[in-house]
């Protein structure tokens, strides 16, 4: 239930639930809870819509580890965007040169 609520990014993310998940990942939970938290956080990091929640997380979280998680998501997205932009520029340049 909690994981599904975090995965639903069609509405603002539940920051207290995210804080609890991050806290479980960093050791306040059992080994099983850490494993589950790791899986949820990885899914969120890999979801391209999570970056839309970064500002909301940074504004509403009191947990520094959660804020760091949000910044990692933001960094990952911006790095991916720059990589894709540069890749397309190279491919476009090759296409122009070949025509």
List its traits.
79% helix; mainly alpha; 5 helices; 99 residues
Description:
The chain has helices at residues 2-7, 15-28, 31-46, 54-60, 64-98. With 99 residues, the protein is an all-alpha fold. The model has no long low-confidence stretch (mean pLDDT 81).
**H and E string:** HHHHH
Overall 3D form: globular
The figure for the number of domains is 1
CA(first)-CA(last) distance: 55 Å
Backbone CA Rg: 17 Å
Q: Which class best fits the helix and strand makeup? A: mainly alpha
Number of distinct beta strands: 0
Mean pLDDT across all amino acids: 81
**Strand content bin:** under 5%
Oligomer: single chain
Main sheet: strands, sense, barrel: none
Low-confidence stretches: none
Tell me roughly what share of residues is in helical segments: over 70%
Domain Importin N-terminal: 37-72
Protein name: Importin N-terminal domain-containing protein
GO biological process, one term: ribosomal large subunit export from nucleus
Family: Belongs to the exportin family.
Secondary structure elements and pairings:
Elements: H1 2-7, H2 15-28, H3 31-46, H4 54-60, H5 64-98
Helix pairs in contact: 2-3, 3-5, 4-5
Organism: Colocasia esculenta (Wild taro)
Domain Importin N-terminal: 37-72
GO biological process, one term: ribosomal small subunit export from nucleus
């Amino acid at each position: 239930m909690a994981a599904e609520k975090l995965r639903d990014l069609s509405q603002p993310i539940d920051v207290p639930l995210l804080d609890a998940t991050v806290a479980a990942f960093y050791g306040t939970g059992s080994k099983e809870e850490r494993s589950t938290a790791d899986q949820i956080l990885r899914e969120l990091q890999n979801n391209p819509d999570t970056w839309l929640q970064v500002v909301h997380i940074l504004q509403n979280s009191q947990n520094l580890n959660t804020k760091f998680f949000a910044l990692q998501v933001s960094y990952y997205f911006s790095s991916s965007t720059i990589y894709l932009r540069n890749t397309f520029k190279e491919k476009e340049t090759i296409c122009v040169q070949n025509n």
